[in-house]
Amino acid sequence: MPRSRRKFDIDEFVRECLQAWEADGAGAVKDVLDRTLGRGCAPVRECFGDPREAHLQVLYPGPELVIENMVWAPGMSYPAHNHNTPVMTGVYAGLEVNDFYHQTRTRKGGRLQRTATVDINEGQAVLMAHDAIHRIANPNRRTFTGAFHIYMGDYLHSSRSIWYPDEAAETPATFAVTKDIFAAANRDLAAARAADAEQELHKKKAAAGTGVLGGSTGPGSASGPPSGPSASHPHAATHSAPHAPARGPSRRGSRPPLHLPGDQ
Question: Which CATH superfamily hosts domain 10-174+237-263?
Fold first, then answer.
């Protein structure tokens, strides 16, 4: 008989991360994350269900660790920000593009200079340094991106910055700002769905007028599962893409600050 696929359990995952942290720190937690993704991303997606909008779900609130399930809407981006604590990202669905920055100080304040871009594909995990500044994007205009974000320490109550609404404006990072960003992304998603539905309706009317049956009913269309705008990024990865590619996260530009806390 074929062996049944192991289910993903949130409580078990949190417990393994906490035990690893207490035993051997961030490196051990990343081993847990790598092992979880290596077993297959499909069980994780099945546990969380099909997303209908962008959202942030706190799986464990600290103080020793903060574990979150982040769901990025199609085409969504989150502005440049810091954490002031090491953080690791593990993608279980789609693609998460991270632009890394270095902050330079001037008389007029701090300015950001992009230093590298790292694509974290489905099945991959990356550990970032405590001083990392990065911007996150889901470049795929059709599918959601799902990822674990694990913060070392009491992240929810720490002092942080976000460069919002543009990279020249450093401001305190608050959950009110995060809420506004996610709400805006979901409004954009709703508008894109409405535009797709209207376009599909026009196609069906045109086909009916010529006596030709038409209209797409497959995934990604207005009558299929929820989707974003029609354009697709060249690096896009769908939920059916193979997990855990043989190569590591792809890097463009100079190497970003990706290292364990002990290396700092």
Answer: Jelly Rolls (2.60.120.10)
